[in-house]
Design brief:
The chain is of the alpha/beta class and about 375 residues long. The chain has 2 domains: about 5-25 and about 265-360, no CATH class; about 30-170 and about 190-255, Spore Coat Polysaccharide Biosynthesis Protein SpsA, Chain A. It has 14 helices and 12 strands. The protein has helices at about 5-30, 55-65, 85-95, 115-125, 145-155, 170-175, 175-185, 210-215, 225-235, 260-275, 280-290, 300-315, 325-330, 330-350; strands at about 45-50, 70-75, 95-100, 130-135, 135-140, 160, 165, 205, 240-245, 250, 355, 360. It has a 7-stranded mixed sheet with strand order 3-2-1-4-8-6-9, sandwiched between helices. It has a 3-stranded mixed sheet with strand order 5-10-7. Helix 1 crosses helix 7 and helix 7 crosses helix 14.
């Protein structure tokens, strides 16, 4: 075969690159540009923790090292069945932590476990700003200063940010294309609108006024995940949603094994499909066609795949510790992406029960 049509692959690759190039440009242009506030509002950092004995020590130590002048840490032990409560107690004094012993979810409505834990944490919080963060995160010492300066400068009611992936194991470091494809589809720095907004539940910084105005986590009590429903609700109520554009605020290792990785993204995709734009499927298809050169094997298609690999290798360095070879092992990432997508669609179509952290959630 001496020739092949590259129009569709070229469009797909162009769409993929255009969604990620503004990220680099805007990140460089605005990093650290937010003016220093004249006063620093009190911040309450709320951590819902269920069976997090492995992660919680690193998080609490990083929060203890924040250089922010006025903040508190409120950890909600969400009825953990492991040693989470004991581990929190061991580091609480040195990390200036208040612990809330979570109570059983009410039965009047179908509560998501994380939402109920966050409601309890918010009720105990005293800050003018509320930062909800996950137990598997590790925060940079100056992160809270940068985040507060950014949300005040933007006038938004909600600020989120991109994580930096630690990737201690080899299989994690090969999945740069997977993570970049997700970011290209969600377009973090595009103007947010309902159905096309980026936030991540690992870092949600609200003004208290905005949080109360949208009804807090109570307003999204029955959703599988809380982040996108909260952001979409904020947008519909006329509150701004901002994505931080500077250096990473926190590091994360989301999943310790490949099985957890697939299970977690299956859950995330299932929730995301509910709020996704109708064009998201078309976008995903075009981007995958572009990365793979239309799954053709003529010289021109191979050149398209090589360009895609070089672009991924360049861009993935900004979001985590990924190995260059992973950019060219795209079948691994795309295979996992498609498999998690199929499983999520299966769950949605057949309204399958979801099990997460030992709890059952009906469709």
């Amino acid at each position: 075969m001496n020739d092949c049509s590259l129009l569709v692959p070229a469009i797909g690759l162009g769409l993929f690159c255009l969604r990620l190039l503004p990220w680099r440009t805007l990140s460089r242009a605005t990093a650290g540009s937010a003016p220093t506030p004249t006063s620093w509002p009190r911040v309450s950092i709320v951590v819902p923790a269920r069976n997090e004995e492995r992660n919680i020590p690193l998080l609490l130590r990083s929060l203890a090292q924040l250089d922010y002048p006025d903040y508190e840490v409120v950890v909600v032990d969400d009825r953990s069945t492991d040693r989470t409560a004991a581990v929190i107690a061991e580091v609480a004094d040195s990390a200036n932590v208040r612990t809330v012993a979570g109570v059983e979810r009410p039965t009047d409505i179908r509560w998501g476990g994380k939402q109920w834990a966050c409601v309890q944490g918010a009720a105990a919080a005293t800050g003018d700003l509320l930062l909800f963060t996950d137990a598997d995160t590790v925060h940079e010492p100056d992160s809270l200063r940068r985040a507060v300066a950014a949300i005040q400068a933007s006038g938004a009611g909600l600020l989120s940010c991109l994580p930096f992936h630690e990737n201690p194991q080899l299989w994690e470091r090969l999945l740069g294309p997977f993570q970049l494809l997700i970011l290209a589809l969600t377009a973090p720095f595009a103007p947010p609108k309902p159905g096309r907004v980026f936030v991540i539940g690992q870092y949600l910084l609200f003004t208290r006024e905005a949080y109360e105005h949208i009804g807090g986590h109570t307003a999204v009590a029955s959703d599988f995940a809380e982040d996108l429903p909260l952001a979409n609700r904020a947008l519909r109520l006329g509150l701004g949603v901002e994505v931080y554009r500077g250096a990473p605020l926190f590091h994360v290792r989301m999943y310790a094994s490949l099985g957890e990785f697939i299970k977690g993204w299956r859950r995330n995709f299932r929730s995301g499909f509910i709020y996704a734009s109708p064009l998201a499927g078309l976008d995903a298809t075009l981007m995958i066609v572009g990365i793979t050169g239309g799954v053709q094997f003529c010289p021109k298609a191979l050149a398209v795949m090589m360009l895609a690999g070089l672009f991924i290798a360049w861009r993935q360095r900004a979001i985590g510790r990924f190995q260059m070879i992973g950019a060219f092992l795209w079948p691994l990432s795309l295979g996992l992406f498609c498999w998690a997508t199929i499983l999520a669609i299966w769950d949605l179509v057949f309204k399958r029960e979801m099990i997460w952290k030992g709890r059952s959630y009906s469709a």
